[in-house]
Amino acid sequence: MVSDGRLVLAVCVVAAAGGLVAGDHKIMTDVTLGFGQALEHCREESGLTEDKMEEFFHIWHQEFKFVDRELGCALHCMSKYFNLITDANKLHHENTDKFIRSFPNGEVLASKLVSLIHECEKQFEEVEDHCMRTLRIGECIRDSCLQRSLAPTMEMLLAEFIMQSET
Q1: How many CA atoms lie within 13 A of 127 on its CB side?
Q2: 93-101 and 110-123 are packed helices; what angle lies between their axes, rounded to 10 degrees?
Q3: Domain annotation for the chain: domains and CATH numbers
């Protein structure tokens, strides 16, 4: 039989772990929306149509297909906009870490996300086309975040987007 003290401790640990996951989703929502602020800036440069821009909101869904080169070009442009990649088109670890930490509680996920992004980047080093490489890396990041339950939910993204547009 478990003592009351251990039971309370176990319940607290489980509740805290659940809070971390919910907190991670909130952080990822903030990072996603923050990163997305460059989308309009990159729309023309990447050749992204209005329809494709709307699809961008579904990027975290498992069913979303990373097939359009224009999406890769937009993601590449957005990464450059925030100085998250070097002139050699490699992940700028320090800038990416700072970018993630710039969001409330971003320090909780910064090193984990930088490592995850770097691992995805290494998988596609041989892809020469910057847009297609960024597209493959983006898909890898999405899939890795989904596997780790880090991806924001559509409901959270929409709620935050609406709140931001009202201010």
Answers
A1: 18
A2: 140
A3: 24-166 (1.10.238.20)
